[in-house]
């Protein structure tokens, strides 16, 4: 089994969970933010929806320049779910072409031509394409809980689904 196959299975499994959470976003709360310095609900959701596609695309080269850009939030939460679905499929297609040798080759994140960090591509996939998204998914669930939106199961029943938790 190629290394990337386990990553693709995880993307499928975790993607279903992420999608269930994104589906709960109330469209009338996209501009809400828990603190003035925090991302809005819509900005955070778009970040979750786009990161896997963006990073997977950057990994097709040996390095990429840092690009900090403001998330453009669509008008509806349904558009964010569509953005996620399309991004996940794109990430899977892009990553699915990578051989074990590609995955073990180094990749660097650059800032003005200087490496901020360098790691094997498989490590970057684990760190950003997977773990970074799960981190922000956790933030998203906290935003939704604060807005009193019932949460779906993430790693077991939520308190909304099981009154004994």
What does this protein structure show overall?
With 165 residues, this protein is mainly α. The longest helix is centred in the C-terminal third of the chain and has 26 residues, at 121-146. A hairpin with a 2-residue loop joins strand 2 (106-111) and strand 3. The chain has a three-stranded mixed β-sheet with strand order 1-2-3. The chain has a single domain (3-146), classed as dinb family like domain (Four Helix Bundle (Hemerythrin (Met), subunit A)), CATH 1.20.120. The N and C termini lie far apart (38 Å). The protein has five helices and three strands, in the order H-H-E-H-H-E-E-H. The protein has helices at residues 3-23, 41-58, 77-95, 100-104, 121-146, and strands spanning 63-65, 106-111, 114-120.
What is the topological layout?
Layout: H1 3-23, H2 41-58, E1 63-65, H3 77-95, H4 100-104, E2 106-111, E3 114-120, H5 121-146
Parallel strand pairs: 1-2
Antiparallel strand pairs: 2-3
Helix pairs in contact: 1-3, 1-5, 2-3, 2-5
N-to-C span: 38 Å
Shape: globular
Strand-residue fraction? 5-15%
Order of helices and strands: HHEHHEEH
CATH topology: Four Helix Bundle (Hemerythrin (Met), subunit A)
Strand order of the largest sheet: 1-2-3
Count of domains: 1
Please give the CATH architecture.
Up-down Bundle
* Helical content class: 40-55%
Output mean pLDDT: 94
What Rg is obtained from the alpha carbons, in whole angstroms?
17 Å
Decide which structural class fits the backbone. mainly alpha
Name the CATH homologous superfamily: dinb family like domain
Give a quick set of tags describing it.
Four Helix Bundle (Hemerythrin (Met), subunit A); three-stranded mixed sheet; mainly alpha; 5 helices; globular; 165 residues
């Amino acid at each position: 089994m190629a290394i990337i196959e386990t990553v693709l299975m995880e993307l499928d499994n975790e993607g279903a969970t992420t999608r269930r959470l994104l589906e709960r976003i109330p469209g009338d709360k996209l501009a809400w933010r828990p603190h003035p310095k925090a991302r809005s609900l819509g900005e955070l959701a778009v970040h979750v929806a786009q990161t896997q596609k963006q990073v997977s695309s950057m990994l097709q080269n040996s390095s990429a320049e840092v690009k900090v850009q403001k998330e453009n939030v669509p008008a509806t939460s349904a558009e964010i779910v569509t953005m996620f679905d399309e991004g996940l499929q794109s990430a899977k297609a892009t990553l699915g072409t990578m051989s074990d040798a590609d995955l073990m080759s180094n990749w660097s994140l650059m800032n003005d031509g200087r490496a901020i960090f360098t790691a094997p591509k498989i490590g970057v996939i684990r760190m950003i394409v997977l773990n970074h998204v799960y981190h922000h998914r956790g933030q998203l669930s906290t935003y939704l809980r604060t807005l009193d939106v019932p949460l779906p199961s993430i790693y077991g029943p939520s308190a909304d689904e099981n009154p004994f938790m």
